Amino acid sequence: MMRAPGRLSFVPYMGLLALLVPGLSLASESGQWIDLTAHSVGYAALIIFVLAYALVMAEEFLHLRKSKPVIIAAGLIWALIAYVYSQNGLTHEAEAAVRHNLLEYAELMLFLLVAMTYINAMQERQVFDALRGWLIRKGFGLRALFWLTGGLAFIISPVADNLTTALLMCAVVIAVGGDNTRFVTLACINIVVAANAGGAFSPFGDITTLMVWQKGIIEFNGFFALFIPALVNFLVPALFMHAAVPDIRPEAVSVQQPRRVSFSYHRASEPEAETAPAEIHMRRGARRIILLFLLTIATAVAFHNFLHLPPVIGMLTGLGYLQFFGFFLRMSHHGWQQRNVERANLIGDITPFDVFNKVARAEWDTLLFFYGVVLCVGGLGFIGYLGMASDVMYQQWGPIPANIAVGLLSAVVDNIPVMFAVLTMNPDMDQSQWLLVTLTAGVGGSLLSIGSAAGVALMGQARGVYTFFAHLRWMPEIALGYFASIVVHLWLNG
What we know:
With 494 residues, the chain is mainly alpha-helical. The protein has two domains: 40-102, no CATH class; 103-246 and 280-493, no CATH class. 67% of the residues lie in helices and 2% in strands. The chain contains 23 helices and two strands. Strands 1-2 form a two-stranded antiparallel sheet. The radius of gyration is 23 Å and the shape is globular. It comes from Thiocapsa marina 5811.
């Protein structure tokens, strides 16, 4: 697909802007394509996307859910594209491009829906509450708790997403740290960095890694080459912060603890009083649901690696596992409750398990936001801005500077559209460079508190303590970890 003569002069000037709003440059089935990069429709589409994303970034201040502006923007952008194509006698090209984008979205949406359903099921079975209660009862010192919560965030986030992991660990920090604001602040920063780093070396740890795996660019086992670089990204700033953590042992946890945690994949709930029992028990079937989740992951990996099917097929098969087990729990609930009245009342297991309730409680705002991003980015790429960004970044800059810039950009702009842009650019890179951009897109959001969902959620959960500027004070140390992880990756895997 050749651009019209005279358009190349725009490339150096539009490349950086296109980096912010790239997308899928897709030829139609008929092979006909119109370059709209210097057309009024192209400029209008850029303005629409920038305005929509400005509303997304201001979500915490406007209290406007992030899916709303991008869904509208997606419709407007594709309406403009379709109008221009129909005026030029090309009535099916835009339709074919939209269908391609919808297929991309459907695979990722269904994959995430299954993962969210399992996480919600484990939450309802009190798996996370039991872990939190165990950590609180152990009475660790603040420095030990600093490393323990960070380490657990790094270990858990590759399986459970980084947002849920960060909320869980922050709840422990708030419950134990109490009025020690210095400890709570440092521990929250450590948790955000650890959760983002842990998600970078697993296909299930972050949406960006999931997209790379689903595209088939990196095999499942290939992501584990990022384990040591991700560990370095976590450890370097943590070592600097360690000396600033108060070296004291808090008193035993009181009966009343402030509760500021929500596992709803969205803004943390307002503080409310909760009674902290001496021990929190997991509900019936919790351990088996954990095993079913691991079996589901294994099924998705096997379907992709050995049968060459999309991983989402394996995940949906795993949802069937949970549905059948949920049926067993529901049918046997009454008899079990009659035999274990005291235990059922103790752990609150008084209503039958309902798997469809867990599906309904998935964070649909996130899933719909992802739809809007994919369609917006796809439309802007179909206009032609992808070629501009690709020329500037991967031809003029080179892959290493370009991939480092992707991580820095993800600290300001959500890493989902940034990584989707890189995937749809599909630059000619070896696996080492694809691993590098996966790493930088995953951990770059740790540079600022607003750079990742984990950071935004913890600003609400530890409101007034963990703040944007509190995180910013430690940005040099976090940046040192960011660049150290890149150096280690290039040394080990380059």
